[in-house]
Amino acid sequence: MGKLDGKVAVITGASTGMALAGARLFVAEGAHVFIQARRQDALDDAVRLIGRNVTAVQGDAAEPADLDRLYDTVEREKGSIDVLWASAGMGEPAVLGEITEEQFERTFSLNARGTLFTVQKALPLLNDGASILMTGSNASLGAFPGWSLYAGSKAVQQAWARVWLNELKDRKIRVNVLTPGQVATAKQEELFDATTKSAFESLIPRGKMGRPEEIATVALFLASADSSYVNGLELVADGGTTAL
Fold first, then answer.
1. Beta bridge partners of 132
2. CA distance 52 to 41
3. Which domain holds residue 118?
């Protein structure tokens, strides 16, 4: 018996990386998963990789109309949602004094506004007792030069989780933040050269990047009844980077 048997999950930004690993694990644990991402080719690859009990809906989590289309599909095919993982996000280095308006708009449009409306637009479909999780970043807990814009766009989630759980308590809907650290993903390979990657690895006590599958197991914990008494938590999975 799987930990998510018969459940319906929605995961944004799930064509690659941590969210894709989570989608695969959720399906293995019995869920039907709806995944959203911008690129259709990446979604097609993800569907083939997951293999079953998955529905892909192309779209941008920063675009309200695309979110509406995602949730229209969920309502038509399954009727309700048990797990919502708002994971779509982006980051780029930007040093104070050189941050552009365009960088601000890109980052906050997806990481902050996109996350908020991913959750808000799902509310009519969420079952009582559902689990909401958002993907944060340990950048919001540290002081990494060049990453203040990204850190700020992620820091809002901890405040939202605390307020939203209070607003949703009558429906017994839990709201938590999953905050990963340095994880080896294709996106990271795009952003970091070998020197930067080595510098980030040196901050991790074990000296080695996290794997998407390691984050997926934490997401499963927050999505399932295993975390039934966990609400309003920022669960940090960064190998101890921010503990030092």
1. 84, 175
2. 17
3. 8-183+215-230
Contact assessment for residue 88 and residue 118, using Cβ atoms and an 8 Å cutoff: yes
The one catalytic residue among 150, 160, 164, 221 = 150
Give the C-alpha separation, 161 to 176, whole Å.
6
Structural domain includes residue 204: no
pTM above 0.85, yes or no: yes
Q: How many angstroms separate the Cα of 133 from the Cα of each of 116, 136, 228?
A: 12, 9, 13
What is the CB neighbour count within 10 angstroms for residue 100? Answer: 10
Is the confidence at residue 130, as pLDDT, over 80? Answer: yes
Predicted confidence (pLDDT) per residue in 63-92, tens digit:
999 999 999 999 999 999 999 999 999 999
Q: pLDDT by residue (tens digit) across 38-54?
A: 999 999 999 999 999 99
The domain that holds 18 is classified in CATH as 3.40.50.720
How far is residue 90's CA from residue 190's CA, in Å, rounded to a whole number?
12
* 229 is a catalytic site residue: no
